[in-house]
Specification:
ABC transporter transmembrane region fold; 10 strands; binds adenosine-5'-triphosphate; alpha/beta
């Protein structure tokens, strides 16, 4: 609750002055509205019962009542729409904050995060916060103000009777507390289940090919239906608490209260003092005020159901916002040449489970280094550290003499390019996919595409660089996607280019294109390529062989092949054998 309130207050802070103004005018409106029954009471007591027909005075009274009502309605309408506008602006800020925050979270967060659930937080949960603002808080606020106005007017008329009516407030508090206790677990569970639904949809769409190929669609439908059913049941539980507790109980209280007030009046008249003219007016005013008190109370309690949901949503958003962002390095050093020095690098993702053990490696500026090794030997981990996706121990990685964590973020990302294993393409044109939002001329985009040997095939597409590539680049072959990813990395004119198994999914012909592209960059850009396919890095200046997180061998292809029984030699021969088998399956013995 406190967290959610803090989140809302922070988001509303820039509009504080407007909010205070809005509240002031709402108070004025409530005051004017509270005048209605008072005017009616004056009319009954002064003119109706004594049968005084003072027309000008009556006209003034009626006109005053009409005017007060109209001004109050106008003020309320104006202020509520204005406050709703401010509320939506606050939610807009929250959503932008959450998205921006997610973009700055360290990669270790995404090891744990589930995409669909995360999307649910950025969209559904912030939507719930909007509900909190727009519907709940303002309806509640308005109701509280109207309630306070009516209470004050009643106190002025007859404070003892007012106290009877005021018993409604603690009664309502008890009901709401009971409701909260009963429904809170269901509300939290509903939101969790909703985010699970999102997660499953996102996951299934992402892996549709595998899902259909492994004939898992039925099973997935079944799983989805089970979560959906649980969601329905959880919602039912919420609604039941709502249906039983809120409105009916309050309606009952309303009737009881009216009966009590009328009973007290009858007691007074039976007590010898006949019901005076004054009391009839007061009775009328009280009956109107009771209706005015009950309605906001009903509104407030009804809103509690929504409030509950919104608070849970806000707490989830708040928890996400509390995740620590990647620390931003003070921009001290710069990448100038692109020389990398790794010294005594130890690293593990989890305490007590070391993945890299005391690596020492110098990569000269402009050189081409290949990194190979068995699955799980730590290649991707090394790359993640070089890319600052995870923090390396202080001083263990330096670029051009500067510790890697001391280089300013923007400069670092400009100077370092990455071609990932799975090319990530946007549902946009080839040009947009290469430029990635950077301000680039056509010539710069073409130049990068030429360097990546992607220009020719892009020109062959229907609309050249303007051809939409479909979601995830669905209209391209894997090799073509990879060439676009290389062009994108080169377009930033990096000093260092990292390739993470960029050739493992492409055919030999495209691989040769990639090899030519890499050769063309020799001497200009430092290249570090993890390669499963050894032919990609055959021409590298140096190949580093990792084994269980340690450097086992290093040297050129020729040098490593010369180590009899060496790890590289064995990997290479094994791969050659596999390739030969793949090329000649028909020669298999019958
Ligand atoms: N995000 C992570 N959290 C925890 N442990 C991890 C994480 N990523 C990798 N590991 C562990 O670190 C070790 C090295 O993994 P890494 O991915 O670096 O190997 P790799 O040589 O790149 O393997 P591959 O060729 O299969 O990609 C493995 O034991 C792996 O289980």
């Amino acid at each position: 609750m406190g967290d959610a309130a803090a989140l809302l207050l922070r988001a509303a802070a820039p509009d504080r002055a407007h909010l205070v103004q809005g509240l002031f005018w709402l108070l004025v409106a409530a005051g004017l509205e509270a005048l209605g029954p008072l005017i009616a009471k004056t009319f009954i007591d002064t003119f109706l019962l004594p049968r005084r027909a003072d027309l000008p005075e009556i006209a003034v009274l009626l006109l005053g009542s009409l005017l007060a009502g109209m001004v109050a309605s106008w003020l309320r309408y104006r202020q509520l729409t204005r406050l709703a506008g401010l509320a939506m602006r606050s939610v807009q800020r929250i959503r932008e904050n959450v998205y921006g925050h997610v973009l700055r979270l360290p990669m270790s967060f995404f090891d744990r995060a589930i995409t669909g659930q995360l999307v649910s937080r950025v969209t559904n949960d912030t939507e719930a916060v909007k509900m909190l603002y727009v519907q709940v808080l303002f309806v509640m606020l308005d109701s509280v103000i109207v309630l306070a106005g009516a209470m004050l007017a009643m106190m002025w008329l007859d404070w003892r009777l007012m106290l009877i009516v005021a018993t409604l407030v603690p009664a309502m508090t008890v009901i709401v507390a009971l409701y909260q206790r009963l429904s809170a677990p269901a509300v939290t569970r509903t939101r969790e289940l909703r985010s699970e639904l999102n997660a499953q949809v996102a996951e299934s769409i992402g892996g549709m090919g595998v899902l259909q190929a492994s004939n898992a669609t039925e099973r997935f439908s079944g799983r989805f239906a089970a979560i959906n059913e649980a969601h329905y049941r959880s919602r039912q539980r919420e609604l039941r608490a709502n249906a039983w507790l809120l409105r009916p109980v309050l309606d009952l209280l309303n009737v009881l209260l009216l009966a009590t007030v009328i009973f007290v009046f009858s007691l007074r008249s039976e007590g010898g003092v006949g019901m005076t003219a004054l009391e009839v007016g007061v009775l009328y005013a009280f009956i109107s005020y009771i209706a005015r008190v009950v309605e906001p109370l009903i509104q407030i309690t009804m809103q509690f159901a929504q409030l509950q949901q919104a608070m849970v949503g806000a707490a989830r958003v708040h928890a996400l916002l509390k995740e620590a962002e990647t620390p931003v390095a003070p921009p001290r050093g710069r990448v100038t040449e692109g020389a990398i020095a790794i010294e005594h690098l130890d690293f593990g993702y989890l305490p007590g489970r070391q993945v890299l053990h005391g690596l020492d490696l110098r990569i000269a500026a402009g050189s081409f280094h290949g990194i190979v090794g068995h699955t799980g030997s730590g290649k991707s981990t090394l790359l993640s550290l070089l890319l600052r996706f995870y923090p390396a121990p202080a001083g263990s990685i330096r670029i051009d003499g500067t510790p890697v964590d001391a280089i300013g973020e923007d400069h670092f990302r400009e100077a370092v390019g990455l071609v990932p294993q799975e090319p990530f393409l946007l549902a946009a044109s080839a040009r947009e996919n290469i430029a990635m939002g950077r301000a680039m001329t056509d010539e710069q985009v073409h130049e990068a595409a030429r360097a990546a040997h992607a220009h020719d095939f892009i020109m062959g597409l229907e609309h050249g660089y303007d051809t939409p590539l479909g979601e995830g680049g669905a209209r391209l072959s894997v090799g073509q996607k990879q060439l676009i990813a290389i062009a994108r990395a080169l377009a930033g004119k990096p000093r260092i280019l990292f390739l993470d198994e960029a050739t493992s999914h492409i055919d030999s012909e495209t691989e040769q294109v990639v090899q030519r592209a890499l050769s063309g960059l020799r001497g200009q850009v430092t290249i570090v390529a993890i390669a499963h396919r050894l032919s990609t890095i055959r021409e590298a200046d140096r190949i580093v062989v990792l084994n269980h997180g340690r450097i086992a061998e290093r040297g050129t292809h020729g040098e490593l092949m010369a180590i009899e029984g060496g790890l590289y030699q064995r990997l290479y021969l094994l791969q050659q054998l596999e390739e030969e088998e793949e090329e000649a399956p028909e020669e298999a013995p019958e």
